[in-house]
Design goal:
The structure holds two protein chains of two kinds.
Chain A (H helix, E strand, L loop, with lengths): L2 H7 L12 E9 L1 H13 L9 E7 L2 E4 L9 H10 L4 E3 L7 E3 L3 E9 L6 H17 L6 E2 L13 E3 L2 E12 L5 E10 L4 H15 L13 H4 L6 H17 L2
Parallel strand pairs in A: 1-2, 3-4
Antiparallel strand pairs in A: 2-6, 3-5, 6-10, 7-8, 8-9, 9-10
Helix pairs in contact in A: 3-5, 4-7
Chain B lengths: L1 E4 L13 E6 L6 E2 L4 E7 L2 E6 L4 E5 L6 E2 L4 E7 L1
Antiparallel strand pairs in B: 1-8, 2-4, 2-7, 3-6, 4-5, 6-8
The chains are: A alpha+beta, B mainly beta.
């Protein structure tokens, strides 16, 4: 990145700066479609480039979040119907990657901000990745950033513990309804869903839809499984959300 | 003529060498409005919507699934 771009990039406050970020924390377990709609609503509230960026923290009912490319697979509609019948409704999202299973044992978050001139994809990923790593560090967990082979929705900004994926990030750049360029960087952190259930859902979806992507449960993990003195799983999801909000808001 | 371009420096090509045009939302030779979303890029796990810099007739230079990098000219708009 050149110097000018770097200066522009830094016009957005870092996480933890007093008053720098607005945290929107939704307490209820939402249908995935509603959570994604809330994310879009937060983006649509951005009315100018100097708007305060937001960190959205929410929890989803069980669902498989797929990309728009996934919806064009030859057997998508049949597969989506099958998945819904076994408790995994399929919901299309706007960011890239592959199918991502979410549920009461995962925590969803997203940074929602105006995309200033000179902003880069990598910087947005790195900022959210660092925030999640800092929050996990508070539980004594060291997560590393980098692609995890054979995980679902693989990407360069996967977070892994001992080589097993614990969180994934994806991104979407667009103009909102106020014609402001926005970027949403979303993440899903697995706290307490079982690797077997997550992998089975993704593999079943792609198998029926005609997609080639497959994943292995052995490449996945969750915070609850990494903590030696873990609280109840539901408490851990809430605690992680609280820690992320505190880190982002400087509280 | 106005270039429809991938912004310079949008991503680190050492980390992700290239992206693709995931979709064109207008046909080659069609007319577009200034600011309308005309294409979508896919760069690893990022989707990036490209807006028309001007109104006019769109000439597509990189087709759907074509490879792009920061600075790539995706198309040109012949201003009305």
């Amino acid at each position: 990145m050149n110097t000018l771009a770097r200066e522009r990039e830094h016009r957005l406050p870092p996480f933890g700066a007093a008053g720098g970020w607005r945290t929107v924390r939704l307490a209820q377990l939402l249908p995935a479609k509603m959570g994604l709609a809330r994310m879009q609503q937060v983006a649509d509230e951005i009315a100018h480039e100097a708007a305060v960026p937001a960190l959205l923290i929410w929890r989803s009912q069980r669902a498989l979040l797929v990309t728009r490319q996934d919806t064009r697979l030859p057997g998508f509609h049949e597969s989506a119907a099958q998945m819904a019948s076994v408790g995994w409704p399929v919901v299309a999202r706007r960011s890239g990657g592959g199918a991502c299973p979410v549920g009461p044992g995962t925590l969803e978050l997203a940074t929602v901000e105006p995309a200033l001139a000179g902003a880069t994809m990598n910087a947005k990923y790195e900022a959210l990745s660092a925030l999640i790593q800092a929050a996990l560090h508070g539980f004594g967990i060291a997560a590393r950033s980098g692609p995890v082979a054979s995980a679902y929705c693989r990407g360069n900004y996967d977070l892994a513990v001992a080589g097993r994926k614990i969180a994934g990030l994806s991104q979407h750049w667009f103009r909102n309804r106020n014609d402001i360029r926005c970027v949403v960087t979303a993440a899903s952190v697995n706290v307490a869903e079982t690797s077997d259930a997550l992998a089975a859902a993704v593999n079943r979806f792609y198998g029926a839809a005609g997609g080639r992507s497959r994943c292995r449960a052995a490449c996945l993990t969750g915070l609850w499984y990494c903590c030696s003195n873990a609280a109840a799983a539901a408490d851990l999801v809430r605690d992680l959300g609280g820690r992320l909000a505190a880190l982002a808001g400087g509280g | 003529m106005a270039d429809v371009a991938v912004p310079e420096g949008l991503w680190d090509t050492q980390k992700v060498p290239e992206g693709i045009v995931a979709n064109w939302f207008c046909r080659d030779g069609g007319t577009v409005e200034a600011g309308a979303t005309v294409a979508e890029l896919m760069v690893e796990k990022t989707t990036y919507e490209i807006a028309a810099p001007a109104a006019g007739r769109l000439h597509i230079l990189v087709p759907k699934d074509g490879v792009v990098r920061p600075g790539t000219i995706l198309g040109r708009i012949e201003e009305a």
